[in-house]
Amino acid sequence: MRKFIVLALLSAFTAVAWDTDSSACWRRRGNRRYQCEPVVVCYSGQPRMTVGAPAIAARIQIVATKQFTSPKGLAYRIHLTNHQDMHEEAQVALGPDISPLSSSDDFLGKDRKAAKTSIVTGGPQSYTSIDDLLASLPADQDMMNDPDITKAEDSQRVESEQHNVTVTTFLYAASREKDNDYHLILGGPNAQSTGKFMNAEISGLPQGAFRKPLTIPRQAFKDYFGANIPGRSYSVFDSPIPVTVTGSLFYDIDHKPGVVGPGDLKPQTSWEIHPVSTITFEP
Question: Which of 164, 200, 215, 281 has the most CB atoms less than 10 A away?
Answer without folding.
Answer: 200
